[in-house]
Amino acid sequence: MNRLFSSILTGLVVLITAYPFAWMFLSSFKTNREIYQPGKMLPESFDPFAYKLLFSGELFDFSSVLVRSLLLAGGQAFFACLVTAATGFALAKGRFRGKSLLFWAALLIILYPKQAMSLALFEWMARLEITGNLYGLMLSGVASGLGVIFFTQVFRKVPDELIDLAKVEGQGPLFCFFTLLPLIFPALCTYGILHFFLCWQEHLLPLLTLGSVQLTLPLALAKLGDSSYNTPEAVGLAAGVLAMLPLLLLFCYFFRRVRSALADWVVS
Amino acid sequence: MPNKRAGRLWDNSGSFLLLISPFLLAWAFFWVVPLFTGVDLAMQESHQFSGPVSGTGYTHSPFSNFERAINDPKFIHSLENTSLFIVGSILITLGLSFFLAVSVYELNKKIQGICLFFLLIPSFALPGSLATLFYLFFHGKSGALNQFLVIPLGFDPINWMMDPSWILPCLVLQAVWRWTGVITLVLYCGIRAIPHWQFEVARIEGASAWSKVRTILFPGTRHLLLFAGIFLLVDGVAAFSGAYNLLGGSGGVLDAGLLFVTYAYQVAFPGGSGRFDLPLASAACVLVAGTTACFAWLLLQVRKHMRN
Questions:
Q1: What ipTM was reported for this prediction?
Q2: What is the value of pTM for the model shown?
Q3: CB-CB: which of B33, B102, B128 is closest to A221?
Q4: Cα distance between residue A171 and residue A165, in whole Å
Q5: Looking at domain A68-217+249-267, what is its CATH homologous superfamily?
Q6: What's the pLDDT tens digit per position in A203-229?
Q7: Which of residues 1-40 of B touch A (CB under 8 A)?
Q8: From the CB of residue A256, how many other CB atoms can be counted at a distance below 10 Å?
Q9: Where do the domains of chain B lie, and which CATH numbers do they carry?
């Protein structure tokens, strides 16, 4: 394609996708009157009243919402990494019965839309009486099919010589798996971030199980958007900015690693 | 999954079973059991018909909830909306991402990373903030869509959320906005993986841009396009948060923006029409999710076939 045309097309789309977020950040300092003029970019004054209102606890305890979301997404991503990496290792390097069954199970988890399972999962958790429990919710997302498939491909690329070495040394698969973990650190980061993203944005299941007292970020945002609360628009935008921040920072830090891990995955 | 190097695999079933046991436990406990709970729930008699209401000619059979779902015009309507939503977002997202990936690939190396990063920004936002942002920035008479697109083209400003024919396109637009960056990144990596000599040959032969797309770029990325399509399909069936924030849990004017998960949520829980009819919602979920999984599996088989 013509290089000029490519540059213009890319520039235009980048502008359309990213510009509203700059507007969102600046508008979190604006009054409603200013916000209702979307053509306007800069606020009249940088008054962080919306952030102050959020953290003052007048609406709801926003800092604990933030902590809860971080705990939920971080914990779930950590355990999902560990659990699915172990399964991926077994699938890539081991011989045992029911291997293909395990692979299909993982695939099925991906293909069966998770939200459609939420109602049944809620019913099941209610029978177990663990609704309202953050740790129950955390564990419910640990069995990730995407993780299993991803780590199977990652461990397939680990040279068999390393496994042979472990065998010669008289180590078992369990020990071998834990010694290999530093080697696949970029892949662990990549999947960890991805899982963190997905869990961070999960809306329906927390809505059903945690109820109206223990909010996570998506629920808090929906609450702020609800017109019956009558909060200034800037507060919702400020909450949106704060919700984006952890993901943005994580991604900035790991961008190269994620890209190279993704490029590896695309080839396999 | 067949493994070519089966001879070199490690024989130590006991330890490997120990390694996979956490996954198996979590899978059984939070996936298999809920799946059967869902099916079980779908076969139970709804509270709507128990008590004094029963005996009005309604007899319960294990499949009557499924029948009721299929005969519910709202369910069918939500399916129509969801299908349109999925088809629209898949076509636009894949097309746009493909051309963006090609365009970014043609750019200077240093700018490539920056462009990809900026394109990814919408996927960091919660779907809820996308909805809020959409509502405040794009929507409305003085919103960006009307100011920069509709009015300059000489049309009357559109009332996006109140006009039933525009609600669904708004939701599609949000999905496109959210996913284009991610899919562009995947396709970009796919293009980078195409052997460089193919482009050299095309350059020497003086191939046109179109024939380059047709003979190199498309065949080199079509398995990824299909993969992205499957991902968007499964995600589209499950779409909830954006519509929930934009329409407050309702289906919008004339239910024009009623997506499937919102329907199930409405049937199961109060708010909106709130029917507390968990069995009916469960039956609808089992039907739709089962069909989606089968369809996606078929597509995966196509992908496998394509790669061999």
A1: 0.87
A2: 0.86
A3: B128
A4: 9
A5: MetI-like (1.10.3720.10)
A6: 888 888 887 778 888 888 888 877 666
A7: 1, 5-6, 8-13, 15-20, 22-24, 26-27, 30-31, 33-35, 37-38
A8: 10
A9: 62-307 (1.10.3720.10)
